[in-house]
């Protein structure tokens, strides 16, 4: 983003320091409000946790009893090879699920990939091609490739440049505000 000219005129170090103090004062107010809000949220979570846990347990039990009842009556409830039953208060049914594959306990992804590549099933390893954006930026900076060449390959170059930033020293600001009263 290009830097815009200030409309207030040139600033001294003291002007910039006072402006940072002003921004910092506002940021500390935001921090205090967020801390207060988070504390209240934590209190509410703690207050409602037992009730929610109890209700969740009851829902899990009721849903399991429903599943068992539907499963026991499956032949009577599901006609004509239907797998879903639409009712007044919702629907129940059965879905085919694929087997899920997970790493065995203690096996790392890299180890499983290595084993599969050496096995009769190397096709079970996914090879994902990605654009190496850092390498492209480095090649552009070194002059190994031009912006036009990258565009022809479907890449867009956003020119770099100088970006303005500020960082607040919250401790110093807090100290200054405490001194000011």
What would you say about this model in short?
Helices cover 56% and strands 4% of the residues. By secondary structure, it is mostly helical. It has a domain at 12-97.
How widely separated are the two ends?
39 Å
Shape: flat
Give the neighbour order of strands across the main sheet.
1-2
Element-level helix/strand string: HHEEHHHH
Q: Report the uncertain regions.
A: none
Can you describe this structure?
- The structure is a single chain.
- The protein has 181 residues and is mostly helical.
- The chain has a domain of 86 residues.
- Helices cover 56% and strands 4% of the residues.
- Helix 1 packs across helix 6.
- The model has no long low-confidence stretch (mean pLDDT 90).
């Amino acid at each position: 983003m290009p830097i815009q000219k200030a409309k207030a005129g040139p600033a001294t170090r003291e002007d910039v320091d006072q402006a940072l103090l002003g921004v910092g004062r506002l940021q500390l107010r935001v921090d205090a409000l967020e801390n207060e809000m988070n504390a209240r949220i934590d209190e509410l979570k703690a207050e409602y946790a037992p009730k929610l846990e109890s209700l969740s347990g009851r829902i899990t039990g009721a849903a399991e009893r429903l599943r068992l009842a539907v499963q026991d009556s499956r032949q009577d409830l599901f006609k004509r090879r239907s797998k879903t039953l639409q009712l007044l208060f919702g629907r129940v049914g059965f879905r085919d699920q694929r087997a899920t594959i997970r790493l065995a306990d203690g096996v790392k992804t890299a180890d499983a990939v290595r084993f599969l590549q050496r096995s009769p099933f190397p096709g079970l390893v996914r090879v994902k091609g990605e654009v190496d954006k850092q390498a492209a930026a480095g090649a552009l900076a070194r002059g190994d490739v031009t912006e036009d060449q990258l565009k022809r390959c479907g890449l867009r170059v956003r020119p770099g440049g100088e970006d303005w930033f500020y960082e607040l020293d919250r401790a110093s600001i807090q100290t200054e505000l405490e001194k000011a009263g």
